[in-house]
Design goal:
single chain, 235 residues, RNA-binding, DUF881, DUF881 domain-containing protein, coiled coil
Length: 235
């Protein structure tokens, strides 16, 4: 009678142990599965983040290239504007220089004054014309000053231009219709050293004028101011 009872006890103990093993196996499997699920999700997130980072890096490289291109375009535009501004500045200077040459603008600068006077002694009235200043004498001085680099010239304060004319009218000369009597003061703006040297060269204009009984005086001026020939109105 005791033997069956012992068998039941043993069988119950075995079932208990087996149940504990099943429970442990279930819990372990469940935990491992949970771990794998967490690991898979983390890996998926990391992969997504990595892909996003790669995409962002690509976009950054693309934007950087575009930025470099835009900077090059801006540099080219700045250079073009600088060249254009320089060209406009040069044109403005050339225009001002041309206005100065034609007498449309007021000018100021260093230069010289050449005074041509009639001879102080005239032997006889019959030969008086041989001892006074004529328009050709004035022309000679003006021509020499121009080819020597004079920027602006005036006769007795009257500005002359490329269209000016000078004629002799008895004891006076006419400059663009305005009469002037001797002495004739020819003012020229330019390098004084060059202008004086050009006039005083041996056998040059000064010697020729002296041979024609003309009194010549040359003065260096630190500043000469010449007004325009006529006012220029611009909008």
């Amino acid at each position: 009678m005791k033997k069956p009872k012992n068998n039941r006890v043993i069988l119950s103990f075995i079932c208990f142990i087996f149940g504990m093993m099943l429970a442990f196996s279930y819990q372990y499997t469940k935990k491992e599965a949970a771990k794998r699920n967490v690991t898979d999700r983390q890996w998926q997130k990391e992969y997504e983040y990595r892909q996003q980072l790669i995409q962002i890096q690509k976009e950054n490289r693309k934007l950087k290239n575009e930025l470099v291109q835009k900077q090059n375009e801006v540099t080219e535009m700045e250079n073009a504007l600088a060249n254009q501004q320089k060209a406009h500045t040069n044109l403005a200077k050339q225009a001002e220089k041309l206005r100065m040459y034609v007498g449309e603008s007021k000018v100021k600068g260093k230069g010289i004054e050449v005074t041509l006077s009639d001879a102080s002694y005239i032997p006889s009235e019959q030969s008086a014309t041989d001892y006074i200043v004529h328009e050709q004498h004035v022309f000679k001085v003006i021509h020499e000053l121009l080819i020597s680099g004079a920027e602006a010239i005036a006769i007795n304060g009257q500005r002359i231009s490329h269209r000016s004319y000078i004629v002799c009218n008895g004891p006076v000369i006419e400059v663009d219709g305005t009469q002037h009597a001797a002495p004739f003061i020819i003012s020229a703006i330019g390098n004084p050293d060059v202008l004086i040297s050009a006039l005083n060269i041996a056998g040059g204009i000064t010697d020729q004028l002296v041979q024609d009984n003309i009194t010549v005086k040359i003065d260096r001026k630190e500043e000469i101011v010449l007004d325009p020939i006529f006012p220029v109105h611009r909008p």
